[in-house]
């Protein structure tokens, strides 16, 4: 695993689902994310051994879980399940676990993948959308952490 630049913070993001959860990794300096994998879920419960391996391999300083609110901003059963998943991550791992509103992340992910497909990429699978949604969640979180009114160009 390559070293991180000074001041960089690595994070893993989770696009929680009852059957599949997309996972992405990224770092704050570029505010970008890369899709990693899709976790198979058993009614919202992951294979914790797989997450253990991801944590060990990527050594994140933050874990970010998207909370799927309704379009009106209300909670639903899946929101509460995602919150419980975040709480379990917090119990199991020594880094902060944060949540972010992920409304429309799957729509944004689908739009990104549709654009790639128009450029000749293969068919888009549900797993691709889950991972791309995790990227959207993480990039949104990185952008929400930046101070406003500052030039962030390199």
Measured distance between first and last alpha carbons: 24 Å
- Looking at the chains present, what oligomeric state does this protein adopt? single chain
- Report the sheet-strand fraction: 15-25%
**SSE order, one letter for each helix or strand:** EEEHEHEHH
Name the shape in a single word: globular
Number of strands: 5
Percent helix: 25-40%
Poorly predicted regions are 149-154
CATH class: Alpha Beta
Number of helices: 4
Please state the structural category: alpha/beta
Rounded to an integer in angstroms, the radius of gyration calculated over CA atoms is 15 Å
**What count of domains describes the coordinates?**
1
Give a short account of the largest sheet: 5 strands, mixed
Strand arrangement, major sheet = 3-2-1-4-5
- Name given to the CATH homologous superfamily: YqgF/RNase H-like domain
In the CATH hierarchy, the third-tier topology is known as: Nucleotidyltransferase, domain 5
Q: Specify the CATH architecture.
A: 2-Layer Sandwich
Mean pLDDT: 83
